[in-house]
Amino acid sequence: HKLCLAQPDLLHTQCLIDGQWVGADSSRTLPVTNPATGEILAEVPALGAAETARAIAAAGRAWTGWRSATARKRAMVLRRWYELILNQSEDLARILTAEQGKPLAEARNEIVYAAGFVEWFAEEARRAYGETIPSPVPDKRLLVIRQPIGVCAAITPWNFPAAMVTRKIAPALAAGCTVVVKPAEQTPLTALALAELAVQANFPPGVVNVVTGEPAAIGDELTANPLVRKLSFTGSTEVGRLLMARCAATVKKVSLELGGNAPFIVFEDADLEAAVEGALLSKYRNTGQTCVCANRFLIQESIYDVFAERLAAKVRTLKVGNGLDEGVVQGPLIDGLALAKVERHIADALDKGARVLAGGERHPLGGWFFQPTVLVEVTPEMLCTREETFGPVAPLLRFGSEEEALAIANATEYGLAAYFYTRDLARAFRIGEALEYGMVGVNTGMLSYEVAPFGGLKQSGIGREGSHHGMDEYLELKYLCLGGM
Ligand code: ADP
After folding, report:
1. What is the DSSP string of 192-234?
2. What is the pLDDT of residues 383-414, one digit of tens each?
3. Is 51 among the residues known to form the active site?
4. Which of the residues 134, 159, 195, 448 has the least number of beta carbons within 10 Å of its own beta carbon?
5. Separation of alpha carbons 164 and 186, rounded Å
6. Contact predicate 144/128, CB 8 Å
7. No. of H helices and E strands in the chain?
8. In this predicted model, what pLDDT tens digit does every residue of 85-121 receive, in sequence order?
C-alpha cells in the first residue's frame, strides 16, 4: 500500500503563497493520516493568521494583473491546468485515496469530475456577458458590465478533496478573481498536488494560494481580512453558520454548501430494480460520506418488504477494504468521530424499535471500517432520520400516501438533494415541484455534473456551484449610466 507515484513531485508538503512553496513561520506541522491503515502519510505546515494574511495580500497584489488579462488568456491557463490534471489523474487519484480512503475507482471518477469544472469554467470565462438597457430618458445610455469580485477565500471539506477545490476556484479564476484555498486538515495533499499543477499551468504568482493548518486560526483571518471580498465554504451547517456570522463584520459575499438530509422516496409504481440500483449509488458512494447521499429511505407500504430484502441482499455483497485494493467498493470512514456517529445513530434506532437487516456493526477489518448497513422499521423520531449520518447506513421508513411521503420528506431544516422513483409522469412533476430541495433526482440516484447548478435551500446553503450560474457567484454587476449623449 505504499504510495507509488509516477510523478513524486506531486506530493507537496509545503504551502503555496505568492508562487513560493513555504512552511509555517513556527515550523509547526500537522500529520496527514491514511484512514485505511492509520499510517502517517506526510506532515503539512500548520500555518496561522500571519501566513494567511500574507497569502491574502499576495492574492490582492495579483488581482490587478489577473483581472485585466483578457478572458481568452485566463481561459487558456485554465485549459492548460485541466489538461495537466487529466494527464496526472492516476497519481492524483492515488494521493486522494491514500488520504481520504475512497476506493480508487471512485477517486479516479472524482479527478475527472474535478477536472470537468476546470474545463467548463475555462469555456465560461469568455461568456461573462453584460447587458444594455433601453434608456428611460433620451440623453442617456444605460449598461451593465460584470466584473470579478476580488480576492476569494475557499474553505473545502475532506469528502471530495479535489472536486470541492476546483468547483470553487475554477469559476473564481475564470471570472478574474484570485484565490486563497484552505483545504480540510484531513486531506490537504490532493489540494497541494492540484496547486503544483496550477504552477505548471503558469498561473501568475499569487493568483492561486493554498494554506494548510489549524482551521480556526486560518478561518478567522480569511473571514476578518477586509481584502477578502468573498468566502465560499463547503462543510457542516454548524461551521457554515459561524463563518457567515464572522463575514458579516466586513459584509463579505458568501456561498455556502452545507449539510443535507436527503430523502429517497420509492413509490409503489416504481421500477424496483432501478430503485435498488439508485439507492446503492446514492447511499453507499464514498461510504455514505457525501452531502447528497440519501439519508433516509421512504418506501411505500405495499413494496416495503420486497424493496428492503432486495436492497439488503445487494448490500451484503459490497466489498469493504482499503481503497487501493482491487474490487473494494467501500472504504473506511474518515475518522473515529465519524465511526462513533454511525454507531450512535444505529444504537438509537435499535433502542426505538428498528431492526438490522444487513451489517449493523464495525467491520472485522477494525480501524474506521464499518459494515454497510440496512435498518428496517425506522420511524421519523429516530436520530438517523433527523441528523445527517454521513456513513453507510440506509434507514427504511414506511409511508402510505403521497401526501404523507411529502410531509415526512419536507419536515427538516435541510434542503440539499432529494430523490424519488415513480413511473407516473404527472407524479414526477408534482413531487419534483413540491420537494423543498435545491436538487431532485427523478429515477436516478446520481445527479452531480459540472454543467448543472449544485446547491441547497433552507439551511443547506446559499448560492449555486457549477453550471453557468456558478460564475455569477464570483462576479459583481456594475451599472454604468452615460449622460450627455
Ligand atoms: P466536517 O464535519 O465535514 O469535517 P467541517 O465543517 O468541520 O465539516 O469542515 C469543513 C471545512 O471547514 C474544513 O476545511 C475545516 O477545516 C473547516 N473548518 C472547521 N472549523 C472551522 C473554523 N472554525 N473556521 C474555519 N474553517 C473551519
Report:
1. HHHHHHHHHTTPPTTSEEE--B-HHHHHHHHHH-TTEEEEEEE
2. 999 999 999 999 999 999 999 999 999 999 99
3. no
4. 134
5. 14
6. no
7. 15, 20
8. 999 999 999 999 999 999 999 999 999 999 999 999 9
